[in-house]
Structures are given as C-alpha cells and as structure tokens.
Design brief:
By secondary structure, the protein is an alpha/beta fold. It is built from 11 helices and 8 strands. The protein has a single domain, classed as 3-Layer(aba) Sandwich (Rossmann fold).
Length: 285
C-alpha cells in the first residue's frame, strides 16, 4: 500500500495541472486547443482527447487527470469553446485530416493514442481509418459507428438533431445545460461549460449525416478499447456492442450507469481502466 501512495505523490504535480489554451490555424480551420504535459517524459506517447458534440475542452480536464504521465491535446471544434465558427460546413473526414495534421505539427514523428468520447468517438474512428500509422491505441467511449441504431431517449435526440433548436443562442445554451444535467453532470462540470454557437452545433450534426465508419472498422489493426454505459440515454449500449461486432479484436468495458457524461463527470470510474489498457498495450508493443 505504501508503494501506491508514493507513486500517487510523485505524480501529484501533473495531476492538478490544468490545460493551457491557445488558438492556432491548421489547414484552413482556426481551433483553440487545450494542451498539457510539457513535463512528461520525452518517451511518453501523446494522447489526443476528442470531446462530445458542442463541448469545450475544459469539460475534458477532469478526465485528462487520469493520464498524468503523458502529454495531452484536446481541440475545441469550430463554434465550440474558444474556436470561432467555420466559414463553411465540414465533413468528419476533413476534420480528421486537420486534427491529424495538428498532432503531427505538435508532436512531429510521434504516433499518438486517441480517446474519443461521444461525437469525438466518431472523429476518432475516422482518424484511425484515415491515418492508421499515426494512431497507436484507440479508445472509443459512448459512441457509434454511424449506423442507424435507435436512440434510447427520443426527446433527447430530437433536441440534438432538430435544426429549429439551433436558431437562437439562448435556446442552444439552455438545451445543452439540460443535456448535461440529464447526462449526469454536477455543478462542477456545469461551471466549466461554455455554450457553443448555433452554427458550431449545426455543423457537427451535419458532419455526421450520412457518415459511417462501419465498412472499414474490421480492418483496424491497432489495439482498441470500447467503453460504454449500460443505461446511457443518449448513446445506448447497443452502439458499443455493434462496434464490438465490427472490431472483433477490440476489448470491451461496460460501466453500470445511466449517465452519458460519466467519463467527464466521474472520470475516476472509467479512467483507471483506460489507463491500464493504454499501459498494457504499450508494453505489448
């Protein structure tokens, strides 16, 4: 037991370190990125942390503390957090190219681990498909391959995909706060939330329209972890189980919980298992 406490104290300076933020332009998109881990060992594998629809990188800071020994980068999508709106709509494939180029610029020549939550999980799949040599390990949390599986809560999905919900900024902010609460967010997480713009959310929803990674997922060769919540009202566990059929070599993790936002609101319940998967996969490599 004493050895465990000693390791925790050793990592304490990294655990509490928040992201530092800056804005950069990469391949025509202006993105604000949250980044930390400047003091991580040079041999540490960078981690790309991709967030849910409409979310800002501050919401991922609690989850990032579960990985104190590596450099981490988390971008705000256009119209979210501190990133300005995109001039034109974009596709998942385009954003995947942009984010891959961003990681190559920030960590030249280094393969990275990729953790995608919810909408970010769709983007993570596209990155793994488009740039498989860049992704060392892939973690998909509460996400989908884009297949038309039913949602557990029709009203929640209506608010996410109805264009009328994105006309007024005040309505967007109110809807997302309701979704955060329904997803399990507490007061601490709500304080970190920055409302996205109507255009920002609309572009993310539009990017998913007609997108599917399903045909190419069986060809992934990097280690993959699929994590989901058993009673998730926004992304039902059926999506994860479908992904498990498409990626036969993937490891699965099911958390007994009703909260879609458990990875952000209670990262200690899922973070250690993800950290262990990353460490085991690196040792095997």
């Amino acid at each position: 037991m004493s050895g465990g406490r000693g390791r925790k104290n050793l990592l304490a300076p990294f655990v509490e370190m928040p992201f530092t933020y800056r804005t950069t332009m990469i391949e025509g998109l202006t993105l604000r990125i949250g980044q930390k881990g400047a003091k991580a060992p040079p041999s540490a594998t960078p981690l790309l942390l991709l967030n849910g629809i409409g979310f800002n990188a501050e919401l991922a800071e609690p989850l990032s503390r579960q990985f104190p020994d590596r450099p981490i980068l988390s971008p705000d999508m256009p119209g979210c957090g501190g990133s300005p709106d995109s001039v034109l709509p974009y596709t998942i494939a385009r954003v995947a190219r942009v984010v891959t180029a961003l990681m190559e610029r920030e960590y030249p020549g280094q393969p990275f681990d990729c953790l995608g939550f919810s909408w970010g999980g769709a983007l993570a799949q596209q990155i793994a498909i488009s740039a498989p040599r860049n992704v060392r390990r892939l973690v998909l949390v509460a996400t989908s391959s884009g297949m038309p599986l039913p949602a557990a809560n029709a009203e929640v999905m209506r608010r996410l995909i109805d264009p009328a919900e994105y006309i007024y900024p005040q309505k967007v902010a109110a809807n997302f706060r309701e979704l955060l609460v329904e997803g399990g967010a507490g007061a601490g997480l709500l304080r970190k939330f920055k409302s996205p713009t109507p255009s920002g959310v609309g572009c993310q929803v539009l990017a998913l329209a007609g997108w599917s990674a399903a045909p190419l997922l069986p060809f992934l060769r990097m280690p993959v972890l699929l994590a989901g919540m058993t009673e998730d009202p926004i992304v039902p566990i059926a999506h994860q189980r479908a992904l498990a059929c498409l990626i036969p070599q993937a490891r699965t993790l099911e958390i007994v919980s009703q909260g879609h936002l458990l990875p952000l609101a209670q990262p200690e319940r899922i973070g250690p298992a993800i950290h262990s998967f990353m460490e085991e996969s690196e040792a095997a490599a």
